[in-house]
Amino acid sequence: MAKIKENSTNNLNRKYIITDCNLTYSICMVGGRWKLLILCNLENGKLRFGELRSKICNITERMLTLHLRELENDGIVKRTVYAEVPPKVEYELTDIGRELIPIWEQLSNWGEKHRAMTRPE
Amino acid sequence: MAKIKENSTNNLNRKYIITDCNLTYSICMVGGRWKLLILCNLENGKLRFGELRSKICNITERMLTLHLRELENDGIVKRTVYAEVPPKVEYELTDIGRELIPIWEQLSNWGEKHRAMTRPE
DNA sequence: TATGGTACATACAAAAAAGTAAGTAATGGC
DNA sequence: GCCATTACTTACTTTTTTGTATGTACCATA
């Protein structure tokens, strides 16, 4: 999230895996702690920064900003700034971002099933 | 992976998110650096520890062991030990593990498409 | 008796991710 | 002039993940 060391084994391995495997590449795109929660909240339309912050309880402004920046850089989320004071910024899913929705619905179902299997009442 | 501090904000947030969101829960299951590469390699049947190690270049024995343990604990991979010397251990996907295959194929396609979009030649 | 193969375990170090606390800019309303 | 609002920064600390290096058990074979 912050600075990474370009030539660390860690970073080189990450690059190697991402290059090698589309699947790992995809997972990395949405792999940050809060990213999926952000994306889920955007599923039904645009939200302002402050709306996201209050919908996702426990997230700090710093984390929200960092994840949104990454999602924006990765073309999954679109950011629109309105020239107003106080500032108004809206976030929404891009087309390629929306294409994740049916996939994550399945993943979510899998999770529910898995959870039921491993922790039966 | 190693010891975690039960009451750190970091850990509490992780628990909270996982409890709250099946999707994040699912992603956490396969979120480790090498997990998906391991799972992909098991897609076509059982493999021994040493086979996995040589198929996944750059992975260390420690990382392979750690990830396999987690996948086993999460019921995604099954471990079979043969009472032989030298030891022989085989790994394979469980039923719930196999149910991820169609999902990760879609994710993989998404990744390919996304990659083409963001880095067109 | 020494050696080799297999699947690990352990102690430690480096790197990355997440969290904390405080500050900033712009401007409209009081 | 002062304060409130919004969407951020920045500097720093803590926690977690990843990687390095080395050691272990077991027994068959040389």
Automatic annotation (TrEMBL), chains A, B:
GO MF terms held by the record: DNA binding
SUPFAM superfamilies assigned: Winged helix' DNA-binding domain
InterPro entries: HTH_HxlR, WH-like_DNA-bd_sf, WH_DNA-bd_sf
This protein's record includes keyword Ligase: no
Gene3D superfamilies: Winged helix-like DNA-binding domain superfamily/Winged helix DNA-binding domain
Chloroplast found in the keyword field: no
UniProt keyword terms in alphabetical order: DNA-binding, Transcription, Transcription regulation
Any Pfam family: HxlR
Domain HTH hxlR-type intervals: 21-119
Name of the protein in question: DNA-binding HxlR family transcriptional regulator
Organism ancestry: Bacteria, Pseudomonadati, Bacteroidota, Sphingobacteriia, Sphingobacteriales
